[in-house]
Amino acid sequence: MIVTIDGPAGSGKSTAARGLAHRLGFDFLDTGAMYRAVAFALTRAGIDFADADRVRTLLNDFQLAMPPGRIELDGEEITRLIRTPEIAAASSKVAVHAHVREYLVAQQRKIARSRRMVCEGRDQGTIVFPDAFCKFFLVADARARARRRFDEMTKRGLNVTFDDVLQQQIERDERDTANAIAPLKPAINAIIVDTSAMNAEEVLARLEEDVRRCLPG
User: Fold this and answer.
1) Is 2-214 CATH 3.40.50.300?
2) Under a CB-based contact definition with an 8 Å cutoff, are residues 150 and 165 in contact?
3) What is the dihedral of CA 212, 107, 14, 55, to 10 degrees?
4) What is the pTM of this model?
């Protein structure tokens, strides 16, 4: 039983997905972290994202583990290392390549098979889990999304400006929307939720209400 939450960066989907999974007693799949981990590994190895042969070779030996609250690559914890603006931008660039998406989509389906899971990302309801029983697409005003990401980054001690965060977000939105393989868009049957004027608790309450309404029995 799968719940998908898609949407652009800063729309609140990661926080909502974690909270919703906890309330429902479901598992949580952070697909964004998977793309960041791949981007981090490729960047550290100096591999061009478009070099399909070298990327596939790396992915064949790619050991990614996601215990609660941690991201581990080949046994090394990289949780904080993948949460930088540079890796965020790189993950969006690596995601446009079919050889990366094919690998991660297969991994996501394998992880979620026969489980009750909340999955968040860009294409969970359209590509990865088109038969999910409940789908959401979160949206928010561009400045509101940039403000959330700016606050998150500064709390982690990153030296960024609001204007830089906003510009990076605009560029990322353009890449994600123009992605020919899996463009950022809501599934036909997705519930669209505008989180611009909502806090995290309000978003979570709205999603939980909708999911429980859809639950069988």
Assistant:
1) yes
2) yes
3) -160
4) 0.83
